[in-house]
Please model this.
Amino acid sequence: MTMDAIRPLGDHRGDRAQHEVIASVRHTPSTGPARGGHSFTRAQAAIPENPFAALSGANGRPLKVAILSDFTRIPYANGAVFQTRALYRALNTCGHQATLIGPRDPDATADEIPPGTVALPSLPLRTYPGVHLPIPLDSAVFDPMRWDFDICFAQTTTLLVEFGIWLRKMRGTPLLCVNTTHLAAAYDVLLPERVSRIGAVHTVLHKTLRAPMERLFVDLYNQGDGLVVLSEGLRDYWRERGVAVPIHVIPRMVPEDVFDRQLGPDPYAPLLEERGLDPRGPRFVCAGRHTREKSQHRLIRIFAEHIAPHHPQATLTLVGDGPDSAAYAALARELGVARRVIMTGEVPYSRISDYYRHATAFLHASLSETFGNVLSEALWCGSPTVAFADGMGVSSQIQSGYNGLLLDPGRGALAEDKANAAFGNAALALARDPQAAARLGGAAAQRARERSSPHVVQRMLANAFVNAREHAAQSGIRPLVDGPKALQWLETFRHFRSWVGVTGGLFAFGHLRPAAAPRPKGIQPSFCT
Model:
């Protein structure tokens, strides 16, 4: 099915009936969403053995795994930290010993930190409450004999990866890195709003910051034993920039215990009632951290200009929070749609599936995703989805016309305006045609299970672990702990100097924008629950 196959917009008669039809197709209790005749239950197939269990047999004993993470607790909904949590739990469930290494979080409570966690001194990133940058200013970090791991898994965007490289050189520990951020879009979110609109600023930053950072990370990745990326587009991106180590394309897993659970109460009903809005109108939803790189501001504009004027009952709900929440609320007021743009704030991870499954369609405008975690969750829940093709994560997750609708984002002001209009029309077309939406949703749920089920992703990660250990063995590493102390000190100084220098720069850069409001505590799960 293509966009042309979606019935053109007509009058508003029959909207209630259509909404009820699509609701009955999608909201199948216990079994998850069922569109186009598809339903998914645990009883359909025996649960396979966890792929990580086989690693013990190959090694002769359970593995000791160091997980380098940007978080030692879960301060807010974040795709990377939820994946770190899933990996940590899966490894420990199979008897392996996973140790979390990351920044010290002064707001963390004892029950939020996994046992055995190594919390390094840290600096807060002012524009992102809950984010802390680890720095190697603890003397214990410099003792190579303290660390005894079989493999190091670096799921980090910070220079914490230098610790993994140092450990590989000092102890011969295999290092598997993960790229979780598209660097080309990352720096922009630290700029003040007005500065970000100046083209010359981006030209200067591209030469002085983006390009050097890309070269830095290419060098870092090439000192490991493999790189995990989340899409084919990111594999090509890093190959073109010089990454030579094995690259593994591994999507993020969708936890079945969260997204296949019993359908909960309609979360939109009280929100719409508060505003005096008709609960039977089309409910468009977007989820994710509220920051410019996620492009919710573009989505608000699309809603105001191309959806709201054509359907007076339509609403847009932004699930999540972030440094740009206040700016988004101001934009909605400026465009005259504040009453119909609902901002939920931070939502517990255990509740997010209800927002996907009770919505008419999921809308995603971000062009900076290495892998759209919320997009993967929405597809798993069978949500009809409209998104922009980014050539990276989103483009690998949606096959347009089959499991969602993928549109050209446009380049330049005129092209973007046309793209915005096409996006709005596609969203409204899905609202008008629940049968077409149901077909997309059924295919979305099926393909998500084929690509993002925990067993599939864990099998790919287990293979990457084995490959990284083989790569390290074939690299002929000579651990420096067996050599002169002076050489050890020199290597330690070289890596940690770079670590401290870049981290200090990011800390200072984070002061360019006003400090964001503190996040509410205790909403998200911990690593151990």
